[in-house]
Every structure is written in structure tokens, then in C-alpha cells.
Design brief:
globular, 5 helices
Length: 130
């Protein structure tokens, strides 16, 4: 069974980079263009992992994380992936239910590694290539 990742970001270039790199690493990748779209796709598609930007139109990432965590049982692993890197931003993201917080710009290798580590910590079986 392939691990399903939902990348939620309003920047098309970021979504595309995530999609290319994670697919190459063996993940199935879905995308969403903003927080509201991300919540809707998460509820419908039941991804294993959600990569969530913070600053987006219609619904910000913090609100989207809280909504997903409240409405999905079991909830997916959620990693914030954002340029908002101040200490209070990280605290807000993790306090709101995110499992990890990655600051942009990010190295694709680090992103793949952090996704794998989060899956392992959650006790998920991963069967993906390096």
C-alpha cells in the first residue's frame, strides 16, 4: 500500500516541487490550493500525511490543521511547511495539532526524511524507495 501525502500550498511552484520529489521517493501525492481545499481533500481522500502551508487564502493553515484534527479519526500526520519561522509561529503550529514544523525554504531531501520519520514515529509501515 502506497503512503498518500496531501500537499496544501497556494504557491503552484511549491506544490509542483513537493509533488515531483515525493512521487520520486515513492509516495502518492495529492495537492490542494488553499486551507479550505486542503480540509475538503483531507476529509475525502484520507491521506496518511498532510503538508500544510500557513499563509493561504480562504483558510489559513493553522485553522485547517485544527479542523482536520477535529473532524478526522484517526487524523493524518500533519507537518507544517511554511516560511513563518518565528518561535511563536512554531509554537502555534505545534500547539494547534501539527506533528512537525518545517521552515521554508526547505531541502527536498530533508522534507522526505521528515515525512518518513513522522510515519515511523506514528507506527506506520513505510514501503518507499530512497
Amino acid at each position: 500500500m502506497t503512503t498518500k501525502v496531501l500537499a496544501v500550498d497556494d504557491a503552484p511552484d511549491v506544490r509542483r516541487l513537493i509533488q515531483i520529489k515525493l512521487k520520486k521517493a515513492g509516495f502518492e501525492v495529492l495537492t490542494a490550493v488553499d486551507g479550505q481545499d486542503g480540509v475538503e481533500k483531507a476529509l475525502a481522500e484520507k491521506p496518511d500525511v498532510v503538508l500544510m502551508d500557513v499563509m493561504m487564502p480562504r483558510m489559513d493553515g493553522y485553522t485547517a490543521v485544527t479542523t482536520i484534527k477535529a473532524e478526522m479519526d484517526p487524523a493524518p500526520i500533519i507537518l507544517m511547511l511554511t516560511a513563518k519561522g518565528q518561535e511563536e509561529d512554531v509554537i502555534e503550529g505545534l500547539s494547534g495539532g501539527a506533528d512537525d514544523y518545517i521552515i521554508k525554504p526547505f531541502a527536498p531531501r530533508e522534507l522526505i526524511s521528515r515525512v518518513k520519520v513522522a510515519l515511523i514515529k506514528a507506527g506506520k509501515q513505510i514501503d518507499i524507495e530512497d
